[in-house]
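Students often ask why we bother predicting the structure of a whole assembly rather than each chain alone. The short answer is interfaces. A chain on its own may look different once its partners are present, and contacts between molecules only exist in the joint model. In this exercise we take two input lines together and write out one structure for the complete complex. Read the inputs first and try to guess which parts will touch.
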Amino acid sequence: MEFPSQLLYAQDQALLAIMIFLIILGMGSSLTINDFKAVARSPKGVLIGFLSQFGLMPLIALGLSIVLGLHPAFAIAIILIGCLPGGTTSNMFAYFSRGSVALSISMTTASTVVALFMMPILLNLYTVRFTNQISETMRAAGAETDFVIPTGNIISSLVLVLVPVVMGMILRKKSPGWAKTAEDTAGFVAIMVILYLILTAFVRHGGLFLQTPIQVYIATIGIGMAGFFFGYWFSRLVGMYPLFQRAISLETGIQNGPVSFAIILLSFNEPVQSQMLWLAILYSTFIVMSSSVITLYFRRKGKFDWDIYKNTQIHNRLFGENYITNYPDGFLPARLKKDPSQGTSPVQQRE
Amino acid sequence: MQKIKNERIVAENLADLYQKAADRFDTLPAFATREKALQWKPVSFRGLYHQGLDLATGLIDLGVEARDHVGLFGENRFEWILSDYAVQFCGAADVPRGSDVSDHELEYIVNHAGIKVCFVETETLQNRLLLLKDRLPDLRHIIVMDPDARIEEGVLKLTDIQLAGARLRNEGDRRVFERIKGIRPDDLFTLIYTSGTTGKPKGVMLTHANMISQTENLPGIHNPNDRTLSVLPVWHVFERVIEMYTISFGGCTYYSNIKNLGEDMVHVEPTFMASAPRLWEKIHEKILKGVKRSHPVRQVLFHTAYFLSRQYRASLSFLSNKTLAVKKKRWWELMILYPFHLVRWLIVLPWFGFFNAAVLERIRLSAGGSLGATISGGGALPGHIDRFFNYVGIPVLEGYGLTETSPVISVRSKHNLVVGTVGPPIRETSIRIVDVDSGAVLYPNKNMPHDGRSLRGEIQVRGPQLMAGYYKEEELTSKAFQDGWFRTGDLGMVTHNDCLKILGRSKATIVLSSGENVEPEPIEMRLQQSRYIEQCMLVGQDQKSLGVLIVPELEAFRQTSSPPASHQELAQNKEANRIISQEIRRLISASNGFKSYELIRDFRLLNRSFRVGHELTNLFKVKRHVVTKEFNDVIQDLFINGTSKNI
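Now the answer. The structure tokens for the assembled complex follow.
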């Protein structure tokens, strides 16, 4: 396949960099030190989320690239996406899907930090066969060196990414009003960036959409959907409450797209960079759509247990922490009988 | 997928409902009273039931008989609902009224209803009733609800009666259960006196069957997870129906008030409430103020979101046939419009999705965020307010009804939300539209085009919610009905998507946006005592205050320094306006016995007199709907510029 070697011009890259900075700044603006402390308070949820994000997702990505027989550059990109930490987008979707926003934020926070060392390890582990393939092609073309995953660069890009996160957190502390604005604007900017990338790709390389193999489309849509699916059932099977199942499901499927742009631009070179970037763009586009659909589904499906949780929580808020809500027989589904507050109020947990 | 359960209790009467709710919902909270912002006191269904039985036993011991009328004067509070429980358990009916009741009304109601035992909320009310005591021959006992009130001699305390009743029940007193068994569906549960400004209030007799039919027929799916916020006065039947309905599905009613409404909405996160237009106007004001104060970037985001939502919802309601359909659309119009709306809907959808989530959700959170669908009643919701809340995603369901219809006749449902109408009639309820002059049935009428849809006339109702009649007013009662149909006195039409649209009133009563009823005739008659006023008509339906249209008496002004040639000239004359203003102030004032909401805030001089056969009947009676139509722009001007109080 002939792939345009320069998907983005230099000025686009600069623009993209600024936008990524803004988006990640917005992400930081939504975080406080308390969110890090909260991780310690709900270790079980975060642990399940961690297993799901760094255990399931890279495996799903590897599985997809093998089953679909993806071109090595695409395969590396999809595995890179599989290893990414979660983004703030997932917090918003968790909110609207009636999932636990607190857990979603905790998982995003934890995974952003953990990714510093998990990402390079996983990436090296799962991409071996694909880097070898690229090396062979390169050697056949007369190159002297092997293709390796630029681990050092990736780590430094990840550290670089943390800079705007910290800046955002400082902004939040100094001026909550501005932080809120930054947070809102970031969401809007993110959509604009995706649209801009898609449109420029369309204008400059109109045939790109047709040239892209169908497998790439399947992989970019499939990775998110598979993440939602396995994240949901994994957390359900280990006995998490519905509130947390939805948060974990979305956190697993939704990866931090802007971070992948940053890593690809800062750490990879041609011949793989453009292809990787293209795949990341496609993933970012499709994940917004599929998360919207899943969110609408969860929202409907979760209305009943959410209502129970809300009502119980409000009883404790207004009538005191020791108030116990007893629903009539047959009203609560079996899995909520022991705790209608779904783990959020100690007094409501019964034998 | 977990189905949302509908948990409505089916009961035979209110006492039965209270009993069944206690059995089914047991320790769940039934009512909660605010002590501090984040400290509320709940009472469970079971607890309230037993307290009610105690108080009822106390009342029986005091001599309250089945089918007696028990006065219940006060505002929303726990003791109010407790007293209501007790009165219902006694097999008696209560006569509710707010604490703003005038001495005149108090005297009339207590005597007309033959009240022997009367609950009053406060010390003040107790003292006022005691002063009137000589003129209330039937009244034997006054019971004060407020536990902190200073009790005068001979007056009883609610808690004392409750304690006495509890003691009796401990000793084996089972009379209250006999009473409950003896309640028949057509027994009264309440006798509500509607406020007439002059003349006498009318006692609307509502039966257990009326109320039970409402709890069964209101649209919506609710269960014990729902929270109802109570702000409207409970002695209005609308608020009361919502509270009874809330009991029937096991929800908890949280007693708030106008002052704390904003805060309580955020803390309680209500899912349901009875509301009135004035309330929504206030919330609307507050939201817009909040937006204005916010960061410029966020203001832009809000306006973008609002714009997109408007586009999105307009197309969506067109595509789902939920636009106000006053006229039947022609097929070729649909052919052109349908694709247009479909394309617009698709284009706007993703943008709307984002802005709805990122921006409008914040607005919804200021109303608690959980508000599913809220019924607004007691007056027409102004169009722009209605649309605003619909666009930001807080569906306000405008309903329609009267005290005489217990009250709900029709209401928009969440799935049938046609802005500009009051929705289709509720279950078991039929409406018809009758020509005001000829009395012929316009809708439903097979001989009319589209069965008579979009024809205007008086709305008449038939259904299980119709009152038993006006207490001791047989003539009035028979006038209110026309071959089994209740005459609402409101003008309306049925739209092409079978919703009811209210067009105005054929009765003269003006309902202000605060919910106060004003009978215009006595005020107009008083105004016409002035030698400067030839004719006048009071306006102010759904407005905050009254205004008046005045045809000045040319002759009277001829005697002034600069005699005017015509009504037209006079209307512009500053001196004339000053004189009329003075006259209004002289004739209609608080010192003349008019209530604050009856005072006229503004007026306009008309540029011609009313003509017989047009604005006047052959008997020189003002045809209100004709004047309203003819001088529509004057009225509009009066209320838009009405803030400049000319009087």
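Check your guess against this: Chain A has two domains: 10-300, 302-351.
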